[in-house]
Amino acid sequence: MSVLIYAENQNGKFPKSALEAVSYGAEVAAMMGTDAVAITCGSISGDGGLGNAGAGKVWVANAPSSDSQAMSKLIVAAAAQAGANVIIFSHDVAGKMIAPRVAARLDAGLVPGATALPSTDFVVRKNVFSGKAIADVAIHTANKVITVLPNSLGVKNTSSTAAVETFAFDAGASRITVKEVKSENKDGEVPLPEAELVVSAGRGMKGPEHWGPIEELAKVLGATTACSRPVADIGWRPHHEHVGQTGVTIRPNLYIAVGISGAIQHLAGVNGSKTIVVINKDPEAPFFKAADYGIVGDAFEVLPKIIEAAKTFKAAH
Amino acid sequence: MKILVCISKAPDTTSKIAFTDGGSKFDENGVQYIVNPYDEWYALVRALELKETIGGTVTILSVGGSDYEPIIRKALAIGADEAVRIDAAESDSLYVAKQIAAYANGKGFDIIFCGKETINYNGSIVPGMVAELLDLPFVSLAIKLNMNGATATIEREVAGGEEVIEVSTPFVVSAAKGMAEQRIPNMRGIMAARTKPLEVVPAAAADAATSVKSYSLPPAKSGCKYIDAENAGSLIQLLHEEAKAI
Question: Is residue A185 part of a domain?
Answer without folding.
Answer: no
